[in-house]
C-alpha cells in the first residue's frame, strides 16, 4: 500500500484535545466527502460517515481523534501559564518541550522551560515532577499574555511528523494513525453486504466518553475499535513485556484494562488475516483502555473486537509506528469488512 504520508502528517500535526476536536473533525469530514453515503455529527462531536450496505445489519468502526493535551487553569502575575492535564501524561517528559497555546485570537508558540541543572538544589533535583508544577512561557510581557490568553484555552505539544527509516514518528499518532487507517479502509470499501458506520470519536483519552455515547445512538450489531497499543520492544524491557513489536504486523486485541474482546470476533480477525496473508500479532495490554470497552456495553451487550497499531513511546511527542504495520491494519480492516455478511454468529 502506498501510504499517503501528507494526510497522516496533517492528521497528526493538527491540534485536537479531548472535547475540542474541531480542527480534526473538519479534516475527517473533508476526507469523508465523496467516500461515504452520509456524514453527520452529534452533540458531543463524534463524526459518523456511513456506507450503506445491502442489509440493515450495522457495523461500527471507531477510531478516536482526540490527543492528550492541557487546558490553561491559571495565568500568573508574571505571565506564565499553569496547566490542567487532559489525558494521561508522564510529567517526566514535559520539561524542555515546545507547545502551542490555542487562543481565540490565534495560536501562540510557547515552551515548557527547564532551568539549568547546576542552578538547582539537591532537594529540587530530587523532587518528583508533577503536571501542576509545569509552567508555559510564551515569551510575552504579562500584560500582553493577559490580553491574549484566557483560562480554558488549550495547549498541545508542538511537533512535526517525519519519516524515520521504516518508521513514522511525531505527536498524536495515538490515535490519528488509526483515523488514517479508518479513512483508507472507507475508501477501499466497495458495495458491502452490511452497513458500516465509520466513526471518529471524541474524548477517548478522558474516559471513552464519545464511544459510549455513539454506541447508544447507533446500536450496532458488531463493533470494531481501532487504536494504538504499546510496543515496548526497546532496550531495558524483557520480551514478555513488549506487548507488541514494530514490524510484526497488525495487533489483534485480546484484552486491555477496559475490555476482553469477543473471542469469536478476534478469532475471525485471525482467520481473515491468515487467509489474506496479512501479518498480525496478538495483543494483551495489561493497562490502558480503548473505545472497545465503551462500545461493548453501550445499549446492551455487543460483540466487539479491536485492531491496534503497535506504537513505541506512547503518550509522548515522539510516538513511532512502522509503515508496514499501518498497511497491515488497513488491509485487515478492509478484508474483515469486505467479508462481513451479517450472518456470522458472535453469540457466546
Give a structural overview:
The protein is an alpha+beta fold and 348 residues long. Helices cover 27% and strands 28% of the residues. It is built from 9 helices and 18 strands. The strands form 3 sheets. Strands 1, 2, 3, 12, 13, 14, 15, 16 and 17 form a 9-stranded mixed beta sheet that branches. Strands 4-5-8-7-6-9 form a 6-stranded antiparallel β-barrel. The protein has a 3-stranded antiparallel beta sheet with strand order 10-11-18. The model has no long low-confidence stretch (mean pLDDT 95).
Helix content: 25-40%
Q: Hey, roughly how much beta strand do the residues contain?
A: 25-35%
User: Low-confidence spans: pLDDT under 50, at least 5 residues?
Assistant: none
Query: CATH class of the largest domain, please?
Result: Alpha Beta
Q: Output the structural class.
A: alpha+beta
Radius of gyration: 21 Å
Order of helices and strands, N to C?
A: HHEEEEEEEHEHEEEHEHEEEHEHEEH
Number of strands: 18
Q: What about the largest sheet?
A: 9 strands, mixed
Domains, number = 2
Q: In angstroms, what separates the terminal alpha carbons?
A: 36 Å
Q: So how many helices?
A: 9
CATH architecture level-2 label of the largest domain: 3-Layer(aba) Sandwich
CATH level-3 fold name of the largest domain: Aminopeptidase
CATH homologous superfamily placement of the largest domain: Zn peptidases
GO molecular function: aminopeptidase activity; metal ion binding
Protein name: Endoglucanase
Family: Belongs to the peptidase M42 family.
Keywords: Aminopeptidase, Hydrolase, Metal-binding, Protease
Amino acid at each position: 500500500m502506498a501510504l499517503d504520508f501528507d494526510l497522516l502528517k496533517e492528521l497528526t500535526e493538527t491540534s485536537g484535545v479531548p472535547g475540542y476536536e474541531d480542527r480534526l473533525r473538519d479534516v475527517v469530514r473533508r476526507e469523508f466527502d465523496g467516500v461515504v453515503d452520509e456524514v453527520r455529527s452529534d452533540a458531543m462531536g463524534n463524526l459518523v460517515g456511513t456506507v450503506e450496505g445491502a442489509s440493515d445489519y450495522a457495523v461500527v468502526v471507531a477510531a478516536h481523534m482526540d490527543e492528550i493535551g492541557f487546558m490553561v487553569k491559571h495565568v500568573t502575575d508574571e505571565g506564565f501559564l499553569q496547566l490542567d492535564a487532559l489525558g494521561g501524561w508522564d510529567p517526566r517528559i514535559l520539561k524542555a518541550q515546545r507547545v502551542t497555546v490555542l487562543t481565540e485570537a490565534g495560536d501562540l508558540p510557547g515552551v515548557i522551560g527547564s532551568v539549568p541543572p547546576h542552578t538547582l538544589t539537591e532537594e529540587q533535583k530530587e523532587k518528583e515532577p508533577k503536571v501542576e508544577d509545569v509552567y508555559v512561557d510564551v515569551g510575552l510581557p504579562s500584560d500582553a499574555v493577559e490580553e491574549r490568553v484566557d483560562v480554558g484555552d488549550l495547549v498541545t505539544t508542538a511537533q512535526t511528523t517525519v519519516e524515520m527509516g521504516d518508521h513514522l514518528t511525531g505527536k498524536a499518532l495515538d490515535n490519528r494513525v488509526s483515523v488514517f487507517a479508518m479513512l483508507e479502509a472507507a475508501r477501499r470499501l466497495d458495495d458491502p453486504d452490511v452497513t458500516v458506520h465509520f466513526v471518529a470519536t471524541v474524548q477517548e483519552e478522558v474516559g471513552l466518553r464519545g464511544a459510549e455515547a455513539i454506541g447508544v445512538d447507533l446500536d450496532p450489531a458488531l463493533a470494531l475499535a481501532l487504536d494504538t497499543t504499546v510496543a515496548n520492544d526497546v532496550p531495558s524491557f524483557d520480551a514478555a513485556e513488549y506487548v507488541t513489536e514494530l514490524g510484526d504486523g497488525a495487533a489483534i486485541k485480546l484484552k486491555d484494562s477496559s475490555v476482553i474482546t469477543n473471542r469469536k470476533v478476534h478469532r475471525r480477525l485471525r482467520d481473515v488475516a491468515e487467509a489474506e496473508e496479512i501479518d498480525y500479532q496478538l495483543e494483551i495490554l495489561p493497562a490502558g483502555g480503548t473505545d472497545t470497552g465503551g462500545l461493548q456495553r453501550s445499549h446492551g451487550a455487543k460483540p466487539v473486537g479491536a485492531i491496534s497499531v503497535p506504537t513505541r513511546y506512547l503518550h509522548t511527542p515522539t510516538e513511532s509506528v512502522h509503515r508496514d504495520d499501518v498497511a497491515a491494519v488497513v488491509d485487515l480492516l478492509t478484508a474483515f469488512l469486505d467479508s462481513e455478511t451479517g450472518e456470522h454468529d458472535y453469540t457466546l
